[in-house]
Design a protein that fits this description.
CATH architecture of the largest domain: 2-Layer Sandwich
Order of helices and strands: HHHHEEEEEEEHE
Strand order of the largest sheet: 2-3-4-7-6-5
Helix content: 25-40%
Largest sheet: 6 strands, antiparallel
Shape: elongated
Oligomer: single chain
Distance between the termini: 125 Å
CATH superfamily of the largest domain: MucB/RseB, C-terminal domain
Number of strands: 8
Number of domains: 2
Number of helices: 5
Strand content: 15-25%
Radius of gyration: 37 Å
């Protein structure tokens, strides 16, 4: 069994190495490189974090404002009018009518401002109530909009615009009683489209599901049978 001296302990060995091993001064170039590495590493981390944060903010802004950006207008004149009518319905849905007028009291003023007369008008019943009317200006044409709300809270917008010869897509026509309006869709809304003489008529709502279609047909029939728009000039 060998004898263990005090200086053979870990502490003693450490002291001997510290006192007996030669020490050399690090080259200035090495010290500068180490100092530079220590200084730039945090800077790069901060820069990377800031870049990722800015990218995330930009993406959030794009996603927030994308629905507000102008959409490419379709070439087809009927689809273009439908898109404008749907946009007007969305505006009324979010902000309400610009100036709500009461029918029939305001009919002379509405005819003067919209260029559309109403010899008969659906003023509502137990299922669909008229809540107001106003003149509108869509696709360079004056027109009139009537707003209804049903018992479940759906907003239903009826719009009339002058559009002589506006083509109604045959493949989209739906038979409702004796009428055959076209059913078109845009941006999550359904629209009935038909012509009465030189006037184009539209009924818009958010009823897009199969279960809502029968009710939307019924709303079309109620408004169509009781409303007769004519040019007001």
């Amino acid at each position: 069994m060998s004898e263990r001296f005090p200086d053979d302990s870990d502490e003693g060995l450490g002291r001997r190495l510290a006192s007996e091993l030669p020490r050399y001064t690090a080259p200035a170039r090495l010290r500068a490189a180490i100092a530079e590495t220590g200084a730039t590493q945090p800077t790069r981390s901060v820069w990377l974090a800031a870049t990722l944060s800015a990218a995330a903010t930009a993406l959030a802004l794009v996603l927030a404002f994308l629905p507000l950006l102008p959409r490419i207008q379709p070439v087809d004149p009927t689809e273009r009018l439908v898109r404008s009518v749907v946009a007007e319905h969305e505006r009324a849905l979010m902000w309400g009518a610009r100036r709500v007028e009461i029918i029939p009291t305001a009919l002379p003023w509405l005819t003067q401002e919209s260029g559309i007369g109403l010899t008969r008008v659906f003023v509502g019943d137990e299922r669909l109530g008229l809540i107001g009317a106003e003149p509108v200006y869509l696709e360079g044409q004056r027109g009139i909009a009537l707003y209804y709300r049903d018992v479940d809270g759906h907003l239903v917008t009826y719009v009339v615009l002058p559009a002589p010869g506006l083509p109604i897509p045959e493949r989209r026509r739906v038979q409702i009683d004796r009428f055959r309006p076209a059913l078109m869709h845009d941006n999550g809304f359904s629209t009935w489209v038909w012509r009465q003489g030189d006037l184009a008529c539209f009924i818009v709502s958010d009823m897009v599901s199969e279960s809502d279609l029968e009710r939307f047909k019924d709303y079309f029939a109620r408004v169509r049978k009781a409303t007769e728009p004519v040019p007001g000039y």
